[in-house]
Amino acid sequence: MNDHRISELLELLEPYWKKQGNLNLTELLAQIGEASGHQGGLETLTDDVVFYHLKMKASGEREMIPGIAKDCEDDFKTALLKARGIIKD
Fold first, then answer.
1. This protein's superkingdom (predicted)?
2. Which among 31, 69, 70, 81 is least surrounded, fewest beta carbons within 10 Å?
């Protein structure tokens, strides 16, 4: 894991952990895994699941999934023209 991802993880984890101050890190990760629907032990919980869950927890319920929002077009015609290569980004 590179420095950027570690910094991002700590930034996302801090407010979540402060709300659950009585838990240790292992318990916190197990709770995140359970809340995200992860089936299996803690050793199979990937960092991507933790990142995704923490990002979605911090966003509003009606907000679009991070990573998809950048590719979303409000206008169907524009989306179709971009997909055909007629309009460049």
1. Bacteria
2. 70
